[in-house]
Design a protein that fits this description.
- With about 210 residues, the chain is mostly helical.
- It is about 65% helix and about 5% strand.
- The protein has a domain of about 130 residues.
- Helix 1 packs antiparallel against helix 5 and helix 4 runs antiparallel to helix 5.
- The chain is rod-shaped.
C-alpha cells in the first residue's frame, strides 16, 4: 500500500521569484476596539450658562438674607404698627411677638430657599434627574416670599430694596431653569457620564463623544 504525500494546497507559498522565503507580516499590537473610559468633557454651553445664572441667583439670595437680618429691627417695628392697627386692644408685648413671628417666618423661608438652591444646583451639576424639580420648587417658594415681601415693606424705608433683591434672585433662577430644560442640557443629564474609547485626543475618542 502506497502512502500519498499530504496535499500542500492549504499551505501558503511564501517564496519569492528568486526562490527565497518571505517573512510573514507581524500581527499588529494595536486595536481600534478600545475599552470604554470615563472622559472629562466640558458640559454644553446651555448647561454652563444655566449653572452661572443659578450661582448668581444664590449669591443674590445670600445677599438678601444678610440684608434682611441687618434691617430686622426697623422692619419688626413697622410690622408691629400694622398689627396694632388690626388689634388695638392687644398689649404691646403681644403685638411685638406677632410681628416677630411674621418677620422671622419670612426670613426662615428665604434661608430655606437659598439652601434648596444650593442643593439643587449641586444635584444638577451632578446630573441628577430630579434636580430640575428641586429648582422649580425653590422658585415657587421664592415667589411666595416675594409676594409677602412687597406687602410687608413700604417705599422709602430701609427694607424697601429687599423685595427687589428677591425679585432679582427669582429672575436669575427662572433663566437658569429655562436653560436647564433645553435639549442639549436634557441630553447631557440623561447621558449620565461621558464615555470615550482610546487615548484622549485620538480619533476614536473624538468620535465617541
Amino acid at each position: 500500500m502506497s502512502i500519498e504525500p499530504a496535499s500542500t494546497d492549504r499551505v501558503p507559498d511564501l517564496r519569492t521569484a528568486s526562490g527565497t522565503r518571505e517573512r510573514p507580516e507581524r500581527p499588529t499590537l494595536t486595536s481600534a476596539n478600545h475599552a470604554p473610559v470615563v472622559a472629562r468633557v466640558p458640559p454644553p454651553f446651555a448647561v454652563r450658562l444655566s449653572q452661572l445664572a443659578w450661582v448668581l441667583s444664590i449669591a443674590a439670595g445670600a445677599f438678601g438674607v444678610v440684608y434682611a437680618f441687618i434691617v430686622r429691627t426697623g422692619q419688626v417695628e413697622l410690622l408691629t404698627e400694622r398689627v396694632r392697627a388690626l388689634a388695638t386692644d392687644r398689649p404691646d408685648e403681644v403685638l411685638t411677638s406677632a410681628a416677630e413671628i411674621v418677620y422671622w417666618s419670612l426670613f426662615g423661608a428665604l434661608v430655606v430657599v437659598v439652601l434648596v438652591q444650593i442643593v439643587s444646583g449641586v444635584s444638577f451639576s451632578g446630573r441628577r434627574p430630579g434636580a430640575r424639580w428641586w429648582m422649580l420648587g425653590a422658585l415657587l417658594l421664592l415667589a411666595v416670599v416675594l409676594g409677602f415681601g412687597f406687602e410687608l415693606t413700604e417705599p422709602g424705608t430701609e427694607a424697601a430694596p429687599l423685595p427687589l433683591v428677591i425679585a432679582l434672585q427669582g429672575a436669575l433662577g427662572v433663566v437658569a431653569l429655562l436653560l436647564a430644560v433645553l435639549p442639549p442640557a436634557i441630553r447631557w443629564t440623561a447621558r449620565g457620564v461621558d464615555i470615550r474609547r482610546g487615548p484622549a485626543g485620538s480619533a476614536a475618542a473624538n468620535g465617541d463623544l
